[in-house]
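Weekly puzzle thread! Below is a chain. First person to post its structure in token form gets bragging rights.
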Amino acid sequence: MATFGPQHLWFLLTAAGWTLALSAIAFLGGGLLGFAVALARISDSRALRGLATAYVQVVQGTPLLILLFMIYFGLAIAGFDQLPALIAAGAGLTVYASGFLGEIWRGCIESVPKTQWEAAECLALSRWQRMTRVILPQAMRLATAPTVGFLVQIVKNTSLASVVGFVELSQAGKLINNSIFQPFIIFVTVAGFYFVICYPLSAWSRGLERRLNVGRR
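Winning reply:
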């Protein structure tokens, strides 16, 4: 029987690279869409707030697995060409991330003391100037730790991308195990890869939190 060797380790390393790529797509795409959602959630327009709220509730109330199925198989059923696995997985994770990042950032924006909003208004700043020069810089300090923490969740949630045929880290481990039947060493190695990816992100989050004095006004 074959044993776990360098070729398997290289396969896992390659899959870890695809996990990072998928995580980057989800975080960047979800961040852009999530920022728009956060601004819509605090908009003066009731209709816009309502649409953004409904979007967040639908995304947060739908399991990521279902989102991936809907994007990958739903478009094909509707008559469109089936998306490549990477694009389908990236789109599903982007939608998923936007719903959560939008709420994280909305909460951080609204956590800025009302006195700061009032002071900006007293200076006769426009809404755009108030947001970019006064509110958002303070909200970013509050949002640092939860945003990086959610990035760790995105990395781990890429393991669900296997349902659309995308070979990321956990799926690579499954494929190797189906070949050589050594689950303990394989999945300990997979867990080690996840730790190497996620622990620096968590440590970076703590470092940024201390540097920016998030707990202080």
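Puzzle host: Confirmed. Bonus trivia for everyone else. Helices lie at 6-41, 46-61, 64-77, 85-111, 114-122, 127-157, 169-180, 183-212.
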